[in-house]
Here is the input.
Amino acid sequence: MKRAGVIGWPVTHSLSPLLHGYWLKQYGIDGEMVRLPAQPGEFTAEIARVRREGFAGVNVTVPHKQAAFAIAGIHDRAAEICGAANLLVFGKDGITGRNTDHIGLFQSLRENLGEDTLAGKTVVLLGAGGAARGALLALDELGVAQIHILNRHQARAETLAHALALKLTARLLPGPLESWAALASQAALLLNTTSAGMADVPSLDLDLTGLPRSAPVCDIVYSPLETELLRSATARGHKTIDGLGMLMHQAVPSFEAFFGVRPSVTSGLRAAMIQALDAT
Here is the structure.
């Protein structure tokens, strides 16, 4: 039986086992994806343990993505750019670290908006954490010309912009969250990469009045599926994109690496994920 895991702290909320389990059943593969709870100080030892036990690899969630990058001897381009890995693949030559977060967002935005919709446009991105790095790469690959990175702590936005400025084609403009009102009218897309709006996390108090109604609003949060930000956007008539598409699409290369089959993201998979979210 092929085995893989998802490691994080906490990790009990992860939908990865259900997501991979859906595909394992669909493709008739004898395998399993298990949750691997590990506090920050336990990460290295847990990785060593599952390697000894013959795991094919692990998906990595917070707070271990930078530690995963550090432990890997080989990195793909996305991991190098982001300085973080959400996928570790174990092989005879060591550990390969990959970042598939940007793939998930890229595919979700392309699926919902079309491949060229954002080309040459301006996007406002909220947040400057690990998720923002993958999001910036995805937006760059979609041809976005200019990205305003807004964060409660402007210094973090400036650090992120400086780190990626020479690696991306898009122009990165860091600023404080308070500058949103002045920038809203320029946005062809509003993208939230923060955890605001998740269960037990306060929502962003963001006035969408200045945002053109033609501009979609995307939130990478998937639990709840409709955050307060998306609810407000829907009420104003904006097209909205939830975080479930990103979650499903980022899992495709992971499943292929673990189990040797490239799966498809389908309406049936989405329905199964929504059912699981509704049950929590």
The domain at 2-99+245-279 is CATH 3.40.50.10860 (Rossmann fold). The mean pLDDT is 95. The longest strand covers residues 2-8.
